[in-house]
Design brief:
homodimer; elongated; two-stranded antiparallel sheet
Chain lengths: 160, 160
């Protein structure tokens, strides 16, 4: 999984802290996270294309969450950035070699593929159970107070 | 995930069908699955190094399962071939940028990382719940009878 997933989820959590009418330019989001602006911009565009983020034009323009943070799951962010292809890709090798019979005779999916499909579903279900709002509340609980205060001051300047 | 995982799991299921004292050379395992022998050999060696497969030397030598198939999980095969690193790698970007405070002040793991750790654990738990024996029984139930008969005939010749 690319670093962009970590960046994308963090960006959503940061945007969850903005007032309802505010937006944050891509360059500011990159600055806050200390990541390369050009590369982050690609991920923010993908999140906007997937309907996770929305763009606001004008002098106070930039990105904001497209929906309330409690309605955006970590899975949505992951799938916006990495697609929804499972990690395991079945190439049906059971149909090759000396035991092969015509494809139409294999009426059931391969049991090996089914085991990976179940694992993939469990992974996605777990990521769908956590929302951006959960993570935002977690930040307030977990991050050291001085870091929260510095972040809030910076954000008031950046989003003004 | 590399195609080698699919091959490795299939190879284990094939070896589960051998009589207790039999082994199958790497080249025969590759032939059965219609996959490149040199590339498969690498994966079989990794499975042997991890204690999933055992090697038998001599004229009737080759690979066999190191343990009863009910004691080998799909997760073991995956981890032997791909390692046990989670797909999500936290780079602690929360400690960068204008809100950063010294690392020692972050006493709790990042909530974003924790969400991915939970998802990774769910994925592995699902793969640990399926054994090579389960898959072998599944093959007997799912694969068309002509393919099973052709496979059994081929295997009798190959493992003699």
């Amino acid at each position: 999984m690319s670093d962009g997933v970590e960046w994308g989820v963090h960006a959503c959590v940061l945007l969850a802290s903005l007032p309802a009418d505010a937006a944050l330019p891509a360059a500011k989001i990159a600055e806050y996270h200390g990541v390369p602006a050009a590369y982050l911009a690609k991920h923010l565009q993908a999140l906007a294309a997937a309907g996770v983020l929305a763009t606001a034009k004008g002098a106070r323009g930039g990105y904001r969450l497209a929906r309330p943070p409690a309605e955006i799951t970590v899975l949505e962010v992951v799938e916006a950035l990495e697609g929804d292809e499972p990690a395991f890709h079945c190439t049906e090798i059971r149909r090759r070699g000396p035991a092969a019979t015509p494809a139409r005779e294999y009426t059931k999916a391969c049991g090996i593929n089914r085991a990976f499909v179940r694992a993939d579903a469990a992974w996605r279900a777990e990521l769908a159970a956590t929302t951006v709002a959960d993570l935002f509340i977690g930040v307030l609980e977990d991050v050291p107070r001085p870091a929260l205060e510095k972040g809030a001051r910076w954000l008031r300047e950046a989003a003004r």
